[in-house]
Amino acid sequence: MSRLKSFFGNHIAWGWPSIAAELGVSVRTAKRWRGKGLPVRAGPGQQVWAFKIEIRLWLLEVSGLKAGRPRADVKRECKALFNQYVKGKEYEKVG
Questions:
Q1: Does residue 92 sit within a domain?
Q2: How far apart are CA 88 and CA 44, in angstroms?
Q3: Structure confidence by residue, pLDDT tens digits, 28-86
Q4: Which residue range(s) make up the domain with 54?
Q5: Distance of CA 26 to the CA centre of its chain
Q6: Can you give the three-state secondary structure of the chain, one letter per residue?
Q7: Domain count, the chain
Q8: Do the beta carbons of residue 65 and residue 71 sit within 8 Å?
Q9: 25 — phi, psi (to 5°)?
């Protein structure tokens, strides 16, 4: 796990408190959202972690669709956010 931490650095939210903070919700809510598709992984010893960009993309998609926006528009926004991330530009928290 330490190799993973050193390679990805601050691109990963480690543990439920960090994941919940990234989402702007409580730990309890973050755990509940895992059952609704929040992209969280479990490592050795069952420590959970998630890529911050995946959390933001998931939140952008879910919030956009719940707001009734067309799926194509939401997908376009997700693609734009991901492209910003890949290019190394700063991006703001969604939500």
A1: no
A2: 29
A3: 999 999 999 999 998 778 789 999 989 988 988 888 877 888 888 888 888 888 887 77
A4: 2-86
A5: 15
A6: CHHHHHHHHHHEEEHHHHHHHHHCCCHHHHHHHHCCCCCCEECHHHCEEEEHHHHHHHHHHHHHHHCCCCHHHHHHHHHHHHHHHHCCCCCCCCC
A7: 1
A8: yes
A9: -135, 175
